[in-house]
Write a structure and sequence with these properties.
This protein is of the alpha/beta class. It has a single domain, classed as TIM Barrel (Alpha-Beta Barrel). The protein contains 13 helices and twelve strands. Strands 4-5-6-7-8-9-10-11 form an eight-stranded parallel beta barrel, surrounded by eight helices. A two-stranded antiparallel ribbon has the order 1-12. A two-stranded antiparallel sheet has the order 2-3. It starts with 11 loop residues before the first helix and ends with a strand. The chain binds flavin mononucleotide. Flavin mononucleotide (FMN) binds next to helix 2 and helix 13.
Protein backbone atom coordinates (compact mmCIF):
# COMPACT_ATOMS: atom_id res chain seq x y z
CA UNK A 1 0.00 0.00 0.00
CA UNK A 2 1.05 3.58 -0.57
CA UNK A 3 1.89 4.83 2.91
CA UNK A 4 2.43 8.35 1.59
CA UNK A 5 -1.32 8.62 1.13
CA UNK A 6 -1.87 8.20 4.85
CA UNK A 7 -1.96 11.68 6.34
CA UNK A 8 -2.66 11.18 10.04
CA UNK A 9 -2.62 8.48 12.70
CA UNK A 10 -6.36 7.83 12.56
CA UNK A 11 -6.15 6.66 8.97
CA UNK A 12 -4.15 3.52 9.73
CA UNK A 13 -7.09 1.79 11.40
CA UNK A 14 -9.07 1.10 8.22
CA UNK A 15 -6.01 -0.46 6.58
CA UNK A 16 -5.32 -2.59 9.63
CA UNK A 17 -8.90 -3.83 9.62
CA UNK A 18 -8.42 -5.00 6.03
CA UNK A 19 -5.08 -6.69 6.72
CA UNK A 20 -5.77 -8.42 10.01
CA UNK A 21 -7.65 -11.56 10.96
CA UNK A 22 -11.00 -10.49 12.49
CA UNK A 23 -10.17 -12.03 15.89
CA UNK A 24 -6.82 -10.22 16.00
CA UNK A 25 -8.37 -6.90 14.98
CA UNK A 26 -11.04 -7.36 17.66
CA UNK A 27 -8.28 -7.89 20.23
CA UNK A 28 -6.52 -4.68 19.17
CA UNK A 29 -9.49 -2.36 18.76
CA UNK A 30 -11.66 -3.52 21.62
CA UNK A 31 -12.05 -2.09 25.09
CA UNK A 32 -13.95 -2.92 28.26
CA UNK A 33 -17.70 -2.90 28.82
CA UNK A 34 -19.55 -0.30 26.79
CA UNK A 35 -16.21 1.20 25.74
CA UNK A 36 -17.15 4.50 27.42
CA UNK A 37 -13.62 5.06 28.67
CA UNK A 38 -12.07 4.34 25.29
CA UNK A 39 -14.29 7.01 23.72
CA UNK A 40 -13.60 9.38 26.62
CA UNK A 41 -9.87 9.03 25.94
CA UNK A 42 -10.43 10.41 22.46
CA UNK A 43 -13.02 13.06 23.32
CA UNK A 44 -11.38 14.53 26.42
CA UNK A 45 -8.73 16.42 24.44
CA UNK A 46 -11.38 18.66 22.92
CA UNK A 47 -12.14 20.28 26.26
CA UNK A 48 -8.72 21.90 26.25
CA UNK A 49 -7.72 24.74 24.02
CA UNK A 50 -4.29 25.92 23.01
CA UNK A 51 -3.04 29.47 23.61
CA UNK A 52 -0.63 30.36 20.83
CA UNK A 53 1.94 33.12 21.34
CA UNK A 54 2.94 35.18 18.35
CA UNK A 55 6.02 37.08 17.25
CA UNK A 56 8.32 34.59 18.89
CA UNK A 57 11.48 33.67 16.99
CA UNK A 58 10.86 30.08 16.02
CA UNK A 59 13.30 29.78 13.12
CA UNK A 60 14.21 26.33 14.36
CA UNK A 61 12.13 23.83 16.30
CA UNK A 62 13.75 20.98 18.21
CA UNK A 63 11.43 18.33 19.62
CA UNK A 64 14.13 16.14 21.15
CA UNK A 65 13.81 15.49 24.84
CA UNK A 66 14.55 12.99 27.57
CA UNK A 67 12.21 10.53 29.24
CA UNK A 68 13.37 9.56 32.72
CA UNK A 69 17.00 9.90 31.73
CA UNK A 70 16.61 8.24 28.32
CA UNK A 71 17.43 10.67 25.49
CA UNK A 72 14.75 10.61 22.79
CA UNK A 73 14.29 12.40 19.48
CA UNK A 74 10.67 13.16 20.33
CA UNK A 75 8.57 12.95 23.50
CA UNK A 76 6.50 10.04 22.14
CA UNK A 77 6.98 6.32 22.64
CA UNK A 78 5.37 3.09 21.40
CA UNK A 79 3.18 1.96 24.33
CA UNK A 80 3.75 -1.57 25.60
CA UNK A 81 1.38 -3.74 23.62
CA UNK A 82 1.19 -7.52 23.50
CA UNK A 83 1.50 -9.80 20.49
CA UNK A 84 2.79 -7.60 17.64
CA UNK A 85 2.95 -10.66 15.37
CA UNK A 86 -0.84 -10.55 15.19
CA UNK A 87 -0.30 -7.38 13.13
CA UNK A 88 2.72 -8.39 11.08
CA UNK A 89 5.10 -11.37 10.91
CA UNK A 90 8.06 -9.13 11.79
CA UNK A 91 6.19 -8.11 14.97
CA UNK A 92 8.20 -6.24 17.59
CA UNK A 93 11.36 -6.46 15.45
CA UNK A 94 9.72 -4.15 12.92
CA UNK A 95 8.34 -1.90 15.67
CA UNK A 96 11.76 -1.61 17.33
CA UNK A 97 13.55 -0.95 14.05
CA UNK A 98 11.11 1.82 13.17
CA UNK A 99 11.24 3.50 16.58
CA UNK A 100 15.03 3.04 16.68
CA UNK A 101 15.40 4.63 13.24
CA UNK A 102 13.30 7.58 14.43
CA UNK A 103 15.15 7.82 17.77
CA UNK A 104 11.86 7.30 19.61
CA UNK A 105 11.33 5.05 22.59
CA UNK A 106 9.69 1.63 22.46
CA UNK A 107 8.35 -0.01 25.60
CA UNK A 108 8.38 -3.76 25.01
CA UNK A 109 5.54 -5.79 26.52
CA UNK A 110 6.18 -8.84 28.70
CA UNK A 111 3.86 -10.57 26.22
CA UNK A 112 5.95 -9.75 23.14
CA UNK A 113 6.17 -12.25 20.29
CA UNK A 114 9.93 -11.71 19.88
CA UNK A 115 12.12 -12.01 22.93
CA UNK A 116 13.70 -9.25 25.00
CA UNK A 117 17.08 -10.08 23.48
CA UNK A 118 15.90 -10.37 19.86
CA UNK A 119 14.20 -6.96 20.07
CA UNK A 120 17.29 -5.38 21.66
CA UNK A 121 19.41 -6.65 18.74
CA UNK A 122 16.95 -5.53 16.07
CA UNK A 123 16.28 -1.99 17.21
CA UNK A 124 19.19 -0.11 18.67
CA UNK A 125 17.10 2.87 19.73
CA UNK A 126 15.86 3.78 23.21
CA UNK A 127 13.85 1.04 24.89
CA UNK A 128 12.06 0.26 28.13
CA UNK A 129 10.61 -3.05 29.28
CA UNK A 130 7.07 -3.51 30.63
CA UNK A 131 6.65 -6.07 33.37
CA UNK A 132 3.66 -8.24 34.17
CA UNK A 133 4.52 -10.06 37.36
CA UNK A 134 4.26 -13.82 37.12
CA UNK A 135 3.13 -15.81 40.16
CA UNK A 136 6.49 -17.47 39.96
CA UNK A 137 8.51 -14.52 41.24
CA UNK A 138 11.73 -16.06 39.97
CA UNK A 139 10.37 -15.74 36.43
CA UNK A 140 9.55 -12.06 36.98
CA UNK A 141 12.99 -11.41 38.46
CA UNK A 142 14.58 -13.15 35.51
CA UNK A 143 12.64 -10.97 33.03
CA UNK A 144 13.84 -7.79 34.75
CA UNK A 145 17.42 -9.06 34.84
CA UNK A 146 17.30 -9.96 31.14
CA UNK A 147 15.88 -6.55 30.23
CA UNK A 148 18.56 -4.72 32.21
CA UNK A 149 21.30 -6.91 30.69
CA UNK A 150 19.94 -6.12 27.20
CA UNK A 151 20.12 -2.36 27.65
CA UNK A 152 16.50 -1.50 28.44
CA UNK A 153 16.70 1.77 30.37
CA UNK A 154 13.34 1.70 32.19
CA UNK A 155 11.21 -1.01 33.82
CA UNK A 156 7.50 -0.27 33.57
CA UNK A 157 5.38 -2.23 36.04
CA UNK A 158 1.79 -2.37 34.86
CA UNK A 159 -0.49 -2.02 37.86
CA UNK A 160 -3.96 -1.95 36.33
CA UNK A 161 -4.28 -5.54 35.21
CA UNK A 162 -4.79 -7.89 38.15
CA UNK A 163 -7.18 -9.56 35.68
CA UNK A 164 -8.09 -8.55 32.13
CA UNK A 165 -11.06 -6.19 31.74
CA UNK A 166 -14.47 -7.33 30.52
CA UNK A 167 -13.81 -7.10 26.78
CA UNK A 168 -16.79 -8.31 24.86
CA UNK A 169 -15.22 -8.05 21.42
CA UNK A 170 -12.66 -10.59 22.56
CA UNK A 171 -15.35 -12.91 23.92
CA UNK A 172 -17.27 -12.62 20.66
CA UNK A 173 -14.22 -13.55 18.62
CA UNK A 174 -12.77 -16.22 20.83
CA UNK A 175 -9.22 -14.93 20.98
CA UNK A 176 -6.88 -17.80 20.40
CA UNK A 177 -3.26 -17.03 19.77
CA UNK A 178 -1.66 -19.10 17.01
CA UNK A 179 1.51 -20.90 17.97
CA UNK A 180 3.72 -18.73 15.78
CA UNK A 181 2.45 -15.59 17.54
CA UNK A 182 2.75 -16.78 21.11
CA UNK A 183 4.70 -14.84 23.76
CA UNK A 184 8.44 -15.33 23.30
CA UNK A 185 9.75 -14.40 26.72
CA UNK A 186 8.54 -17.50 28.50
CA UNK A 187 10.33 -20.62 27.36
CA UNK A 188 7.30 -22.77 28.11
CA UNK A 189 4.49 -20.53 26.89
CA UNK A 190 4.50 -21.77 23.33
CA UNK A 191 0.89 -22.68 22.91
CA UNK A 192 -2.35 -20.78 22.90
CA UNK A 193 -3.60 -22.55 26.02
CA UNK A 194 -0.57 -21.43 27.89
CA UNK A 195 -1.05 -17.81 26.82
CA UNK A 196 -4.63 -17.78 28.05
CA UNK A 197 -3.57 -19.72 31.08
CA UNK A 198 -0.99 -17.06 31.76
CA UNK A 199 -3.53 -14.27 31.94
CA UNK A 200 -6.10 -16.36 33.76
CA UNK A 201 -3.93 -18.15 36.30
CA UNK A 202 -0.25 -17.29 36.21
CA UNK A 203 -0.50 -13.53 36.46
CA UNK A 204 0.02 -12.43 40.07
CA UNK A 205 -3.07 -10.70 41.48
CA UNK A 206 -1.59 -10.36 44.94
CA UNK A 207 0.87 -7.62 44.00
CA UNK A 208 0.99 -4.62 46.38
CA UNK A 209 3.04 -1.44 46.73
CA UNK A 210 5.58 -3.32 48.84
CA UNK A 211 6.50 -5.41 45.81
CA UNK A 212 8.03 -2.37 44.19
CA UNK A 213 11.02 -2.78 46.49
CA UNK A 214 12.20 -6.16 45.09
CA UNK A 215 11.51 -4.98 41.55
CA UNK A 216 13.57 -1.84 42.18
CA UNK A 217 16.32 -3.89 43.79
CA UNK A 218 16.44 -6.20 40.78
CA UNK A 219 16.45 -3.29 38.34
CA UNK A 220 19.40 -1.68 40.17
CA UNK A 221 20.32 1.61 38.51
CA UNK A 222 17.52 1.32 35.97
CA UNK A 223 14.48 3.38 37.03
CA UNK A 224 11.13 1.70 37.72
CA UNK A 225 7.86 3.25 36.57
CA UNK A 226 4.30 2.38 37.56
CA UNK A 227 1.82 2.29 34.69
CA UNK A 228 -1.92 2.52 35.17
CA UNK A 229 -2.30 5.28 37.75
CA UNK A 230 -5.44 7.44 37.66
CA UNK A 231 -5.72 8.90 41.15
CA UNK A 232 -3.77 11.34 43.31
CA UNK A 233 -3.80 8.78 46.14
CA UNK A 234 -1.92 6.21 44.06
CA UNK A 235 0.44 8.82 42.63
CA UNK A 236 1.47 9.71 46.18
CA UNK A 237 1.99 6.02 47.00
CA UNK A 238 4.06 5.50 43.85
CA UNK A 239 6.27 8.39 44.81
CA UNK A 240 6.58 7.21 48.43
CA UNK A 241 7.56 3.73 47.25
CA UNK A 242 10.42 5.02 45.15
CA UNK A 243 8.99 4.83 41.64
CA UNK A 244 11.04 6.93 39.24
CA UNK A 245 8.06 7.54 37.01
CA UNK A 246 4.31 7.25 36.67
CA UNK A 247 2.38 6.51 33.50
CA UNK A 248 -1.12 7.96 33.83
CA UNK A 249 -3.15 5.41 31.89
CA UNK A 250 -6.40 3.48 31.80
CA UNK A 251 -4.90 0.83 29.52
CA UNK A 252 -6.61 2.35 26.49
CA UNK A 253 -10.01 1.80 28.10
CA UNK A 254 -9.41 -1.96 28.18
CA UNK A 255 -9.64 -2.46 31.95
CA UNK A 256 -12.27 -0.73 34.11
CA UNK A 257 -14.91 0.99 32.03
CA UNK A 258 -15.97 4.50 33.11
CA UNK A 259 -12.49 5.37 34.35
CA UNK A 260 -11.50 8.96 33.63
CA UNK A 261 -9.49 9.91 30.57
CA UNK A 262 -5.82 10.26 31.51
CA UNK A 263 -5.63 13.86 30.25
CA UNK A 264 -8.44 14.80 32.67
CA UNK A 265 -6.49 13.64 35.73
CA UNK A 266 -2.95 14.38 34.54
CA UNK A 267 -2.56 17.76 36.18
CA UNK A 268 -3.70 16.71 39.66
CA UNK A 269 -1.34 13.74 39.49
CA UNK A 270 1.60 15.89 38.41
CA UNK A 271 0.95 18.12 41.41
CA UNK A 272 1.42 15.30 43.95
CA UNK A 273 3.96 13.15 42.08
CA UNK A 274 6.98 14.55 43.91
CA UNK A 275 10.23 13.42 42.27
CA UNK A 276 8.44 11.12 39.80
CA UNK A 277 8.42 12.01 36.14
CA UNK A 278 4.87 11.71 34.83
CA UNK A 279 3.89 10.28 31.44
CA UNK A 280 0.52 9.62 29.84
CA UNK A 281 -1.10 7.30 27.35
CA UNK A 282 -4.61 6.83 26.00
CA UNK A 283 -6.15 8.46 22.96
CA UNK A 284 -3.04 10.32 21.83
CA UNK A 285 -3.58 10.73 18.08
CA UNK A 286 -2.40 14.21 17.11
CA UNK A 287 0.56 16.49 17.61
CA UNK A 288 -1.75 18.90 19.42
CA UNK A 289 -2.60 16.11 21.89
CA UNK A 290 1.10 15.71 22.61
CA UNK A 291 1.67 19.43 23.27
CA UNK A 292 -1.46 19.57 25.45
CA UNK A 293 -0.16 16.73 27.62
CA UNK A 294 3.26 18.35 27.88
CA UNK A 295 1.68 21.68 28.86
CA UNK A 296 -0.21 19.95 31.66
CA UNK A 297 2.99 18.47 33.03
CA UNK A 298 3.71 15.20 31.21
CA UNK A 299 7.33 14.56 30.25
CA UNK A 300 6.22 12.43 27.33
CA UNK A 301 3.37 10.35 25.99
CA UNK A 302 2.82 6.88 24.59
CA UNK A 303 0.73 5.72 21.65
CA UNK A 304 -0.82 2.25 21.47
CA UNK A 305 -3.39 1.30 18.85
CA UNK A 306 -2.41 3.69 16.03
CA UNK A 307 1.15 2.34 16.00
CA UNK A 308 -0.18 -1.24 16.05
CA UNK A 309 -2.46 -0.41 13.13
CA UNK A 310 0.48 1.17 11.31
CA UNK A 311 2.43 -2.04 11.89
CA UNK A 312 -0.42 -4.04 10.36
CA UNK A 313 -0.69 -1.62 7.44
CA UNK A 314 2.97 -1.52 6.49
CA UNK A 315 5.32 -3.33 8.89
CA UNK A 316 8.44 -1.36 9.77
CA UNK A 317 7.68 1.27 7.11
CA UNK A 318 4.15 1.65 8.45
CA UNK A 319 5.35 2.42 11.97
CA UNK A 320 8.01 4.69 10.48
CA UNK A 321 5.33 6.59 8.59
CA UNK A 322 3.24 6.98 11.75
CA UNK A 323 6.21 8.37 13.65
CA UNK A 324 7.07 10.70 10.80
CA UNK A 325 3.50 12.05 10.71
CA UNK A 326 3.40 12.60 14.46
CA UNK A 327 6.81 14.29 14.40
CA UNK A 328 5.65 16.67 11.67
CA UNK A 329 2.45 17.46 13.59
CA UNK A 330 4.34 18.13 16.86
CA UNK A 331 6.80 20.40 15.05
CA UNK A 332 3.95 22.24 13.39
CA UNK A 333 2.01 22.60 16.66
CA UNK A 334 5.07 23.89 18.53
CA UNK A 335 5.87 26.38 15.79
CA UNK A 336 2.34 27.75 15.81
CA UNK A 337 2.30 27.77 19.61
CA UNK A 338 5.47 29.88 19.57
CA UNK A 339 7.86 27.43 21.27
CA UNK A 340 11.06 26.07 19.84
CA UNK A 341 11.98 23.53 22.56
CA UNK A 342 9.92 20.92 24.39
CA UNK A 343 10.80 22.36 27.79
CA UNK A 344 9.44 25.76 26.75
CA UNK A 345 5.89 24.37 26.64
CA UNK A 346 4.19 25.57 29.83
CA UNK A 347 0.83 25.53 31.58
CA UNK A 348 0.15 28.94 30.06
CA UNK A 349 -0.08 27.36 26.60
CA UNK A 350 -3.29 25.51 27.51
CA UNK A 351 -6.56 27.00 28.59
CA UNK A 352 -9.97 25.62 29.33
CA UNK A 353 -11.61 27.56 26.54
C1 LIG B 1 -3.78 -4.64 21.67
C2 LIG B 1 -3.26 -4.01 22.92
C3 LIG B 1 -2.39 -4.73 23.74
C4 LIG B 1 -1.90 -4.15 24.91
N1 LIG B 1 -0.99 -4.86 25.65
C5 LIG B 1 -0.46 -4.29 26.76
C6 LIG B 1 0.55 -4.96 27.50
O1 LIG B 1 0.97 -6.05 27.15
N2 LIG B 1 1.03 -4.34 28.60
C7 LIG B 1 0.60 -3.10 29.00
O2 LIG B 1 1.08 -2.58 30.01
N3 LIG B 1 -0.34 -2.43 28.31
C8 LIG B 1 -0.87 -2.99 27.19
N4 LIG B 1 -1.79 -2.29 26.46
C9 LIG B 1 -2.16 -0.90 26.86
C10 LIG B 1 -1.22 0.13 26.20
O3 LIG B 1 0.05 0.10 26.77
C11 LIG B 1 -1.74 1.56 26.34
O4 LIG B 1 -2.05 1.80 27.69
C12 LIG B 1 -2.97 1.88 25.48
O5 LIG B 1 -2.95 1.17 24.26
C13 LIG B 1 -3.01 3.39 25.19
O6 LIG B 1 -4.17 3.74 24.55
P1 LIG B 1 -4.31 3.95 22.95
O7 LIG B 1 -4.37 2.59 22.36
O8 LIG B 1 -5.56 4.73 22.86
O9 LIG B 1 -3.11 4.76 22.47
C14 LIG B 1 -2.31 -2.84 25.28
C15 LIG B 1 -3.17 -2.13 24.46
C16 LIG B 1 -3.65 -2.69 23.28
C17 LIG B 1 -4.54 -1.87 22.39
Amino acid sequence: MDLERILNLNQFEAHAREQMEPYAFAYYCGAAGDEITMRRNLDAWNRFSLRPRVFVDISSVDISSSMLGTPVSMPVGFAPTALHKLAHPDGELASARATGEAGALICLSTLSTYSIEEVAKAGRGPRWFQLYVHKDRELAIELVQRAVASGYSGIVVTADLPVPGYREREFAHDLTVPEDASPANFPNAATEEEFNDYLDHLHDRSLTWDDLSWIRETAGEVPVLVKGILTEEDAILASEHGAGGIIVSNHGGRQLDRCPAPIDVLEEIVQVAGECEVFLDGGVRRGIDVVTALALGAKGVFVGRPFLYALAAGGEEGVGRALELLRAEIENAMTLLGVSRVNEITRAHVGPN
